[in-house]
């Protein structure tokens, strides 16, 4: 089992992992402990980017620094564990360039991300899409849906069609360019509730952090006939 230890004065840095709802947190005097990491989480970029944190492996109630062979101390007894979402509310009292208060404004911007996620949509030029769709077998189009955006064709669903274009991954009713993520990704769910409270839309994001709303009712099943009718 993995444990993270960090001083309370640096707790704002835990905001980058607050969205991992499986984690539990406990307080000990001037220290915060976090546990229940998966192997993937403990080796992630998010953990590597947390300054002042120490990572331990628990063996027979002894704590070993990660990848070290000798124990350094015992796990403190009597810790009271709380889900991380409850232990670390969005609004923390201290403000600096790494964290913000709930009453302060912050611009949500996209940035290149090292996280690899499966592409779920493709934005292609009309002529590029037309040359394939009008000759494609029915079974290849049936799993997909589509809509027109700025005279381009956005095709949603998998497997993606073999077309040139920009791919997007899907999360919280957001379509985000592949290879990008929010700078403050811990606020994705809050942003979704503000932009799309009734979940009637899909929010389509551009690399410059601008976005547009796509009404779900306007998204059609992809077929040769629906494509022809739209552009007739």
Task: Describe the protein's topology.
Blueprint: E1 2-7, E2 24-28, E3 31-35, H1 39-42, H2 45-48, E4 54-59, E5 62-65, E6 71-74, E7 82-83, H3 84-87, E8 110-112, E9 121-125, H4 126-133, H5 138-141, E10 145-149, E11 152-156, E12 166-171, E13 174-177, E14 180-182, H6 188-195, E15 201-205, E16 211-215, E17 220-221, H7 224-230
Parallel strand pairs: 13-15
Antiparallel strand pairs: 1-3, 1-4, 2-3, 2-7, 4-5, 5-6, 8-14, 9-11, 9-12, 10-11, 10-17, 12-13, 15-16
Question: Short summary of the structure?
Answer:
This protein has 232 residues and is an alpha+beta fold. Helix content is 17%, strand content 32%. The strands form three sheets. An eight-stranded mixed β-sheet has the order 16-15-13-12-9-11-10-17.
Describe the structure.
- About 6% of the residues have low confidence.
- An 8-stranded mixed sheet has the order 16-15-13-12-9-11-10-17. A 7-stranded antiparallel sheet has the order 6-5-4-1-3-2-7.
- Strand 12 and strand 13 form a beta hairpin.
- The protein is built from 7 helices and 17 strands.
- It folds into 2 domains: 86 residues; 121 residues, no CATH class.
- With 232 residues, the protein is of the alpha+beta class.
Strand portion: 25-35%
User: Largest sheet, described in full?
Assistant: 8 strands, mixed
Residue ranges: pLDDT <50 for 5 or more in a row?
91-104
What is the tally of helical segments? 7
What is the C-alpha radius of gyration, as a whole number of Å? Answer: 23 Å
End-to-end gap:
61 Å
Structural class: alpha+beta
Order of strands, widest sheet: 16-15-13-12-9-11-10-17
Number of strands: 17
Mean pLDDT: 86
Overall body shape: elongated
Sequence of secondary-structure elements: EEEHHEEEEHEEHHEEEEEHEEEH
Percent of residues in helices: 10-25%
Please give the domain count: 2
């Amino acid at each position: 089992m993995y444990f993270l230890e960090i001083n309370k004065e640096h707790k704002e840095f835990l905001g980058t992992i607050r969205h991992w709802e499986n984690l539990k947190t406990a307080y000990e005097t001037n220290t915060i402990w976090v546990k229940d990491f998966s192997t993937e989480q403990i080796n992630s970029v998010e953990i590597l980017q947390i300054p002042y944190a120490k990572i331990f492996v628990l063996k027979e109630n002894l704590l070993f620094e990660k990848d070290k062979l000798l124990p350094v101390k015992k796990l403190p007894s009597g810790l009271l564990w709380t889900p991380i979402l409850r232990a670390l509310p969005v609004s923390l009292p201290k403000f600096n360039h790494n964290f913000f208060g709930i009453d302060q404004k912050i611009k949500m911007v996209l940035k290149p991300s090292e996280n690899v996620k499966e592409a779920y949509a493709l934005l292609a030029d009309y002529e590029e899409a037309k040359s394939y769709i009008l000759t494609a077998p029915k079974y290849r189009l049936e799993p997909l849906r589509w809509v027109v955006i700025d005279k381009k064709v956005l095709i949603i669903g998998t497997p993606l069609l073999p077309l040139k274009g920009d791919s997007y991954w899907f999360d919280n009713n957001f379509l985000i360019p592949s290879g990008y993520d929010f700078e403050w990704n811990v606020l994705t769910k809050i942003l979704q509730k503000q932009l799309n409270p009734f979940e009637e839309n899909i929010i389509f994001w551009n690399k410059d952090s601008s976005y547009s709303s796509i009404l779900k009712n306007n998204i059609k099943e992809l077929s040769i006939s629906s494509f022809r009718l739209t552009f007739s």
